[in-house]
Amino acid sequence: MPETIIVIGAGHGGAQLVDSLRAGEFGGNLIMIGDEIHRPYDRPSTSKGLLSGSVELERTFLKREQFYVDNKIDLRLGTSVSEVDRKARTVRLSTGERLTYDKLVMATGARARRLTAPGADLDGVFYLRSLADSQAIAGRLGPGKRLAIIGGGYVGLEVAASATELGCRVTVIETQKRLLARVAGAEIAEFYCQVHRAAGVDVLLDTVLEGFTGEGSVKSVRLTDGTEILADVVVVGIGSIPNAELAAAAGLAVENGIVVDDCGRTSDPAIFAIGDATNHPNDVIGKRLRLESVPAAVGQARAAASAILGRPKPFHELPWFWSDQYDIKLQIAGLSQPDDQVVVRGDPGNNRFAAFYLREGRIVAVNSVNSAKDFVVGKRLITEGRVPGVGRLADPAVPLADA
């Protein structure tokens, strides 16, 4: 009998995995199970182009529908897995059907962290994690609409930019003393705070939510100081939780995500896991981590496919991310810490600069704004363990590679 591989999850990681397996001449059965009704799509577009209407729905799909037909991939959409029986090597679907696997890959992703504040269940309070979420939110936005965003991270700020471009009146509410507190340096946070305020966004920092008011539908956001902010729509972006419960119930090792090695192997040799739901090792930065990153999900998928095919190529890449807000592109490579030395290269006033983060003299991260060259060269310098001259690094007249 031909070997059967079942993939739970139809996101970036799952799509790359089946592509890599077929490209690597895997000739067995491939079954991909996705709980959404859409085939794999570009998830970052949901808070950017798809939400603002600048990108058509069809352009967000990662592959044409014919790809799955031509490659004999059994795509089961609108379906979830309720149980994994490791002993029998079967999965039970939400339809009640049981499928048998030789190898199983969990690409279950992460879900939005939800609020428990009073009124959080009112109509008009949204979370953005899926294409359907994006479409539902977009249907409520438009000129003059009042949008309140809870959380000043990537998702919140991208939604703020998209909604502002649609003519909405936007308020961002952040409990921390600055934006992007968990994902970017203070210099980048201050820059984006100024950018959003200049675009008309009301940014409230060090501000705590108490709840929402309204009868049936949300009418306002109430803060702990008693202030009420009128809102027709609310979008909550306060982080995510890895979808690791299925793995835990099956008895796999789970600790801030499904624990895997550098090829996505779990504690069961027949089961792999990739993407946002995993806790994986990274030799480049020297520690284990859980990343919510398209590049990481794609890289892990390729590594898992290589191991399944018997030609293992471990995943060890420098973490990198990006964010598009208005006409400004932020690109981040590496992971900075609050006590890192910071060197700014370029002029933030011109919307084109980069902040380099040094630890014990070595570059460990770069946050670049509209400066793709600094990002690309910076990535290389980080992996090389470069110890730059601080003065030369800060001088745009000095080629970055020579700093």
From TrEMBL:
Gene Ontology molecular function terms on file: oxidoreductase activity, acting on NAD(P)H
Cellular-component GO terms for this entry: cytoplasm
Transmembrane segments: none
Classification via Pfam families: Pyr_redox_2, Reductase_C
Sequence ranges assigned to domain FAD/NAD(P)-binding in this UniProt record: 5-301
Keyword Coiled coil: no
Superkingdom to which the source organism belongs: Bacteria
Cofactor(s) named in the record: FAD
InterPro entries hit by this protein: FAD-oxidoreductase/Apoptosis, FAD/NAD-bd_sf, FAD/NAD-binding_dom, FAD/NAD-linked_Rdtase_dimer_sf, Reductase_C
Key words, A-Z: FAD, Flavoprotein, Oxidoreductase
Residue ranges of domain Reductase C-terminal in the record: 320-402
Protein name as annotated: Pyridine nucleotide-disulfide oxidoreductase
Organism of this sequence: Paraburkholderia elongata
